[in-house]
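Key idea: predict the complex, not the pieces.
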Amino acid sequence: MDEDDEMDMKVKKYLRGESANLEILQDRKLKGQLAVREELYGKSAKAAAKIEKWLLPSEGGYLEAEGIEKTWRIKQESIAQEVDILSTRNQYDIVLPDFGPYSLDFTSSGRYMAIAGRKGHLGILDMKNMALIKEFQVRETVRDIAFLHNELFFAAAQKKYPYIYNRDGTELHCLKEHGAVLKLQFLKNHFLLATINKLGQLHYQDVTTGQMVGNYRTGHGRSDVMQVNPFNGVVAVGHSRGTVSMWKPTSAAPVVKMLCHQGPVTALAFHSNGHLLATAGMERKIKVWDLRKFEVLQTLSSHAKTLDFSQKGLLAGATGSFVQIWGDLAGAQSYDRYMGHSMAKGYQIGKVAFRPYEDVLGIGHSKGWSSVLIPGSGEPNFDTWVANPFETPKQRREKEIHSLLDKLPPETIMLDPTKIGAVRPTRKKEKPTNPEREAELEAAVAAAKDIPMKKKTKGRSKPSKRAKKKQEAVEKARRPFLEQAAKEEELSEKKRKRISEENELPKSLQRFTRKKARA
Amino acid sequence: MKVKVISRSTDEFTRERSQDLQRVFRNFDPNLRTQEKATEYVRALNAAKLEKIFARPFIGAMDGHIDTVSCMAKNPNHLKGIFSGSMDGDIRLWDLATRRTVCQFSGHQGAVRGLTASTDGRVLVSCGTDCTVRLWRVPVATVMESEESSHNSSEPLAVYVWKNAFWAVDHQWDGNLFATAGAQVDIWDHDRSQPVNSFEWGKDTVVSARFNPGEPNVLATSASDRSITIYDLRMSSPARRVVMRTKTNSISWNPMEPMNFTAANEDCNCYSYDARKLDEAKCVHQDHVSAVMDIDYSPTGREFVTGSYDRTVRIFQYNGGHSREIYHTKRMQRVFCVKFSCDASYVISGSDDTNLRLWKAKASEQLGVLLPRERKKHEYLEAVKNRYKHLPEVKRIVRHRHLPKPIYKAASLRRIMADAARRKEERRRAHSAPGSRLKEAFRKKRILQEVE
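Result:
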């Protein structure tokens, strides 16, 4: 039944992974204890699924086209006519042409927004009341802005150094070690401020103690594309060679380096579940990657100067004065056009950011900033203990203290954060036997031969060329096996040479032959 | 087109008056919470550290006896009181809340060896080395009692003289009979001046006796010939017997699983048995470094407390091979008797230095009335600490206990000796024909034989 399937899917989400295999345990006491625990997990997942079905107060937004109209042709004005007045207040354009392209940032509850104009205009706004809390001029180039853990503090990347300001506009800190910062990101759970500067150096600073946790050279020159993955806290930097490298504060070498595009990477965005990464390159491609397997799930052909994922998985990309929003409506992880918004011709969009817990997209452009309604982009139900848009000052103070008590040490940033507390797998590497290896080779070759070749037009699909391409694919499949075989040959060759060397020497000198150091 | 946008009205999500509570909305979606496991790990680490900060188990000492406290008795109808008897014949009733003597029962000429309260809690039975069994009337606690000074004394209800010195006494959980242990096991009735029945197996003195909480007629005793015997009062002869390698000093039945009992042995271990199957111990509880003198189960049946000749009190889990907690003080000498309080929150130990000491069963517990919020927080911290207690940092903190130097050295010496013996046995097995030397389970190794 459909309802049962729905409940099963929900329960699966709350179970957070597979249940442990208890059959392999031989310790009966441990088995009994773990069986009880697994049962409790099942019960709590079911209870959470039921709560999600029946007890959540709000429902999400949606946009459905009727008849022959398409959702991506629907304009903001027509949406405004159908929606209540309170929501139309979220659609506006603030025009401030003097102060340069604007960059924006939202707090995690979506209530406060910080704006930074390139020519030095900084400000904080309360979005619930549409009130300006504070604005001031720093009379210097400001390249980026980011809130720290709550709306009281924000960091601005100014001409020479980044500065940290209070909500009242008081300058609290001048972070001299970071240098001329291009992009700032704040890691919420770890209270780390990650910055990348003009020389391509990545700095991590703990904002509670002021200690510099890490300071690494990315090695690929200047890059102004940096995003933090909210799922695991790694920082991804996009380079002008088309590579994306991911960093963590405890190692000087990047955790992952992926070649994404054939030109410079222009924008990056992470999905909140941590599995999807969208990268945009200058060769007019936006690729959606699966981070578990590091494979391309989808390629969209469009430019994007800035990308952002919403809480519900919609992807917004902006180039020039046009914003395009893609969504995976069928749930099949394939992104199609959902909505679009084009602004007046002279407006160059610099940054797009979805507002958390609201169906709103904030757009920072060269003549100010705007906000448009995107139904279905925000999470309708917030959790008071995670992020509360209706927070009172007392609640904010308590939350600050609790999040400081739960501050994670920088060592917990890793590619797979679910490994904490798990049993480390045994390191035994079994070498596959020869027939097994040959079988694997055959299977890989067969798979390579089965790949369907694309039929190209304009005389580019000559049979000779197609055959050559197929041959290349087969060679590519065989290459890892051949390399492994060659490596083993080399090792055994070395071993044989060493043994023969040993045998040639007189017996009294055999103890001085070079022995491999013990691991 | 159909369109709907999220719009929240402030009234629904904020409180109406300042007297109301703030509204809380929950969404348990895992996508909203990132790095849950790391956060839980940090909380577990902090919880372990906080537990150690708040671990102050010693509440107070009850001073009054002038000789070693040899035995104690609980009164199940009166949670606040505990009886204690000492080696000079002095019996006192203490009030645990004020830690003062309520009533003194003097009369014994020699050491008081056993104390027990009757089923309804009105009569206290005591026995001693002066070959007498005395019955006392327990004063009913009234409000005025706590205000007056603590030197009431009462006259015994009855004094029964018998042929031999007594070592222990225990009352039926549900009935009118009590059993004394001496040269043989005697069953007495309150009103008779001579034993109603007598059991004997072998010629050695019986050192301790305990009635089963579930079956009122089943009695377990231990004798100086290293045996544990189980008697049934309805039969004329003893039911079962198991002989071990060393003497059992004390026995305690598990009140929640009445077929199991745990025996405190001279070889520093406690052995849990199933009374129906005495050929193998269910569990061996090892951690003491000297003879275990007394043992008592918690009313929950999930843990028990032991007091040992090595000046420490340990709390074990009913199925755990090692202790979960150890209590020691420089002033506390050899511990001869321990009791778990009837509400499972406190442990009372009576020792050689003439004091009774009151300890918390859970060292970092907050006593008194807890707000529901506090209780939930404690439960959460306990649960998150248990989930991550296998990780090295958390384990190091949770496991850490300060041991007095002699105990630490004695324990490491025992470990070295046990390791050496194990290694020797393994080598012997490796060098003999396969199958000629069998591995003997430790649970069986200390048992010599079982006799019907």
